[in-house]
């Protein structure tokens, strides 16, 4: 006799359960029966699906629930793939192009080009020297190619996050209803474990397609730039908006001439967080063939090569410092220009 037989017997549902009396006994009940003692109230299991299934086979087990979800997803897979394939194909082209560019351009051209970008963003010679030292160190320990692959993926995915995230944040700031409907989605994207992003994508795309890891990185990293764009525009002083209205500015003029410039510090903070989260996800995405320093970390874990794992981890830390310092220097310039 199962623990929860009394519920179905009391409600007269035994016929619906498909048995004349009693269901499959749980392991706990079998042990109790063998020992000749009824289970105490203290040991009563929670009425979960599996425990209710023991009393009534008509109730699905948890395993049947997960199998049903899996079969449902597999049933929609071809339709989803038909729709998503052409939409996401440009992402594969961008990632392949960026990887090809960063790997084929000689180091004596690529490194000065990166340093020029750093100087234009920060206007700091000291930061340029620091970044140059870090990149040359990575090249010195033969991690240059891996670092360039990681940077290429981050540049593409972060740029797409900004191109998609800023307009979504602006739209959210202009509509309370849209904000209320989008925030639960952002909460879900932000709280899902990073590995979970990869599971449905593996079913939809081949592991040889760059968009497989590109989509996972974008979904994981796009949240901060959306949230902080929305927050930055909503925090613009109401008196400034009223002054803009008094001057007869249109909504478009207010957005581009007042709200976005004043919200730029928050937007840049969101871009900084998006870049850092992209870097974190690139390492995890190495599980599904994303190239870069994450491949070395994965190799260190698989083969228990401690030195490989530690040195590649140091390379990731150096890249994180470079990206963080450069974006913060750009943010500081924006803040200084607005004071």
Automatic annotation (TrEMBL):
Alphabetized Gene3D superfamilies for the sequence: MetI-like
Main location (coarse class)? membrane
Would the keyword Electron transport turn up in this protein's UniProt record? Answer: no
Q: Where in the cell is it found?
A: Cell membrane
Q: Which residues cross the membrane?
A: 101-120, 127-144, 150-170, 182-206, 212-229, 275-298, 304-323
> Which segments does the entry list as coiled coil?
none
Keyword terms, alphabetized? Cell membrane, Membrane, Transmembrane, Transmembrane helix, Transport
State the annotated membrane topology for this chain.
Multi-pass membrane protein
Q: Which domain of life is it from?
A: Bacteria
* Residue stretches making up the ABC transmembrane type-1 domain: 147-327
State the family named in the UniProt similarity comment for this chain.
Belongs to the binding-protein-dependent transport system permease family.
For this entry, the protein name equals ABC transporter permease subunit
């Amino acid at each position: 006799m199962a623990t929860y037989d009394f519920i179905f017997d009391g409600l007269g549902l035994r016929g619906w359960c498909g048995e004349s009396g009693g269901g499959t006994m749980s392991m706990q009940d079998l042990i109790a029966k063998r020992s000749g003692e009824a289970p105490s109230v203290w040991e009563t299991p929670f009425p979960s699906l599996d425990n209710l299934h023991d009393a009534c086979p008509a109730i699905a087990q948890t395993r049947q629930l997960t199998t049903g979800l899996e079969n449902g997803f597999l049933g929609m897979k071809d339709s989803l793939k038909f729709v998503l394939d052409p939409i996401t194909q440009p992402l594969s082209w961008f990632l392949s192009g960026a990887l090809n560019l960063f790997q084929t351009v000689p180091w004596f051209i690529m490194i000065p080009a990166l340093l020029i970008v750093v100087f234009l963003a920060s206007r700091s010679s000291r930061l340029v020297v620091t970044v140059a030292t870090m990149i040359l160190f990575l090249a010195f320990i033969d991690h240059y190619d891996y670092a360039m692959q990681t940077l290429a993926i981050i540049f593409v995915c972060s740029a797409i996050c900004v191109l998609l995230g800023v307009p979504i944040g602006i739209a959210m700031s202009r509509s309370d209803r849209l904000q209320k409907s989008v925030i639960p989605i952002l909460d879900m994207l932000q709280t899902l474990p990073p590995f979970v992003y990869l599971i449905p994508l593996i079913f939809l795309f081949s592991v040889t397609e760059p968009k497989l890891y590109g989509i996972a990185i974008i979904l994981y990293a796009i949240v901060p730039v959306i949230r902080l764009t929305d927050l930055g525009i909503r925090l613009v002083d109401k008196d400034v908006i009223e002054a803009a209205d008094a001057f007869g500015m249109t909504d478009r003029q207010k957005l581009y001439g007042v709200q976005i410039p004043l919200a730029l510090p928050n937007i840049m903070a969101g871009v900084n967080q998006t870049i850092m989260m992209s870097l974190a996800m690139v390492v995890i995405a190495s599980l599904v063939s994303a190239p870069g320093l994450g491949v070395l970390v994965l190799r260190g874990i698989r083969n228990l090569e401690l030195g490989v794992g530690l040195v590649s981890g140091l390379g990731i830390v150096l890249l994180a410092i470079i990206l963080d310092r450069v974006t913060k220097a750009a943010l500081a310039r924006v803040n200084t220009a607005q004071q």
